[in-house]
Every structure is written in C-alpha cells, then in structure tokens.
C-alpha cells in the first residue's frame, strides 16, 4: 500500500500555520506586483496603476504600464516561479541542500545551448532556440551529477556544488568565446548574461506558457513521491515508488522550467537555493506544501530584487541577476560553512 502522507515530527508545521503562510505569500506577491509596475524611472502612484490596469490603455500612463512595466512584472512572476520550483525539485531529488539550477550548472548549460543556437546557427525565434536551451540544461545536469559522484566518498552536497561551479565556469567561458564571433551576438550576450527582466514583450512571454505549464504540472505532481523519497530509496521502493521514473520526471520538469527561465531572463542564480530553505523553515518538509509555496515566494524575491535594482542606483538600474546574487551569495556561504551539512 502506497503511503503519501507528508513528513511529520518536530519540523512539521500545523495546517493553520501553513495556511497563514500561504495567504501571507499571496498578499506579498500582489503587493510586489503593484510595486514592480509603479516603480521605475517614472514613479506611478498605486491608484494610477490600478486605473491603468482596469481602464483605457491609450493614455501615457496606460502605455507605460501595459507596454513596459506589465511584461517585466509577468516575466518576473514566471521566471521566479520556474526557478523556485526547479530549485525545490533539485534539492528533493538529490537530497542536497546546496542544489540550485544556477549552482549545479543547469542554467549555464541552458545558456550555452541558447548561444550555440543564436550565435552559430543563426536561430532567432523563441520556438527555435528554446529547444537548444532544454538540451543544454539536460546535458549539463547529467555531467554535474556524474562528476559529483567521482571518488571514494560518492556524492556529497559540497562535491556536487563544486562540480556545478566548475561546469558553470567552463560553459560560460566557451559561451563567451562563441559570442565573440559576431559583435551583435556579443552585445546581446552581455545584456542577457547578467540576468534581466527587461526587453521582452507580452506576446513572447505568452509563447513560453505551455513549456512552463508542463514543467509546473510535472513538478507539482511529484510531491507525494518526493515525500516518500525523503525516507530513503529503499523505503520509497518498498512503498511502490519507481525511483527511475521519479528521477526522470523530475529531470524533465527541471529542464523545462530552468531552460525556459534562462531563455527569457538569462542565468539568475540563488533564487532556487534560498527560497526552498526559507519555505522549509516555516512550512516544514512536506513537499505538497513546499513546492507550491516555493513557486509563490520565488517570484516575490525576484520582483523585490528587480525593484531594488531600479532604486539603489537611480536613475540607472542594476540587473535583477546582480541583485539576486548579492542576496543569495551570503546565504550560500552560510550553508557551506555549517558544521553539519546534512543531506535533506
């Protein structure tokens, strides 16, 4: 008989606490969406933002909101949710607290595939180059997984992180070399490589929704199986779980989510690392809550970083990838320096 109940014990949160956390996350997300639309080179009062969203689009404020700010906010929502879900799935599958698409080479692999498509093959359409991003993400994750298991001690969180960092640096170096072939590609790469939510329109964002939807469904449907997997491979197998199928489904979900996010916003690191840990500290380890809450809170972090990047160096802007790295790097160092870095 298959047991799908979530983990219990001292770390398990009560349903009331989880529900309160969920409502609070939704409220915070709505507030940050409004701030993302309101804050910029031109400040727009929140009441005018609401009127522009619900009224005519042909006014000056309406054009700013609908043509510039809203696509940027939508991209932050989708990319943040994708990276948060991808990081949570990776941490659960590998039982590695340092797992993150940006740290384990998945984002760099997607970027490498994307640059091959754009720089060498001359592919300019989203539906053309996004498949290269998926392939690059998948190959990079396999390489990191294999390298992280080399040695007598087998895979450890730190070894996987080091393998991911090494593969990331290698792929980024090759990607920069490819970008030097064409000056136009180089300019595009320089803008894209820092991680940014600007430069995309609503129509292009809508085109990637099917990829993100499939990835999200695959990820969220894994929650009961991941709860069983947290008890150990032997226990999960005895409960009727097919371990290979779980890992393949998780790999496909991470590839779709990360590849799409990187294709649109560039390599944004640490979002998938920080958010699952923050959620786990409040809601407990039950993946049925951790995954959807990570998908809600990760866009909050990304939008907050984007808003902060518009404010701290005004009238210029810092790209969201730079701000998220400044937020996430100290958290990563804290995790590595812990005396007991146990597997999840």
TrEMBL record:
It comes from the Bacteria. InterPro entries: ABC_BtuC-like (IPR037294), ABC_transptr_permease_BtuC (IPR000522). GO terms for molecular function: transmembrane transporter activity. Coiled coil: none annotated. GO terms for cellular component: plasma membrane. It is found in: Cell membrane. The chain crosses the membrane at residues 20-41, 73-90, 102-122, 129-148, 160-181, 202-226, 246-277, 289-312, 318-336. Keywords: Cell membrane, Membrane, Transmembrane, Transmembrane helix, Transport. Its main location: membrane. One of its GO terms (biological process) is siderophore-iron import into cell. It is a multi-pass membrane protein. Belongs to the binding-protein-dependent transport system permease family. FecCD subfamily. This is Iron complex transport system permease protein.
């Amino acid at each position: 008989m298959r047991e799908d109940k979530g983990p219990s014990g001292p770390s398990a949160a009560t349903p009331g606490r989880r529900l309160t956390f969920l409502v609070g996350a939704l409220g915070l997300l709505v507030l940050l969406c409004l701030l993302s639309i309101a804050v910029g080179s031109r400040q727009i009062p929140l009441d005018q933002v609401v009127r522009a969203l619900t009224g005519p689009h042909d006014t000056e404020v309406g054009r700013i909101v609908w043509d510039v700010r809203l696509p940027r906010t939508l991209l932050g929502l989708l990319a943040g949710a994708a990276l948060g879900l991808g990081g949570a799935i990776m941490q659960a599958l590998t039982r590695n607290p340092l797992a993150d698409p940006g740290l384990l080479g998945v984002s760099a692999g997607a970027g490498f595939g994307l640059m091959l498509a754009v720089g060498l093959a001359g592919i300019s359409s989203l539906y053309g180059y996004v498949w290269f991003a998926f392939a690059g993400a998948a190959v990079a994750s396999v390489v990191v997984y294999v390298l992280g298991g080399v040695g007598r001690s087998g895979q450890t969180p730190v070894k996987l992180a080091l393998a991911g960092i090494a593969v990331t640096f290698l792929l980024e170096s090759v990607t920069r070399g490819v970008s030097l072939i064409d000056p136009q590609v180089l300019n595009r790469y320089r803008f894209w490589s820092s991680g940014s939510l600007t430069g995309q329109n609503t129509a292009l964002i809508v085109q990637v929704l099917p990829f993100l939807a499939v990835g999200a469904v695959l990820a969220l449907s894994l929650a009961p199986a991941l709860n069983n997997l947290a008890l150990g491979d032997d226990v999960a197998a005895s409960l009727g779980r097919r371990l290979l199928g779980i890992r393949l489904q998780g790999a496909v979900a991470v590839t779709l989510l990360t590849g799409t996010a990187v294709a649109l916003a560039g390599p944004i690191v640490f979002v998938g690392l920080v958010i699952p840990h923050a959620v786990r500290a409040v809601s407990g380890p039950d993946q049925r809550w951790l995954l959807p809450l990570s998908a809600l809170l990760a866009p909050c972090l990304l939008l907050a970083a984007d808003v902060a990047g518009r404010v701290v160096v005004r009238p210029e802007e810092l790209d969201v990838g730079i701000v998220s790295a400044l937020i996430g790097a100290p958290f990563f160092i804290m995790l590595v320096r812990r005396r007991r870095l146990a597997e999840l």
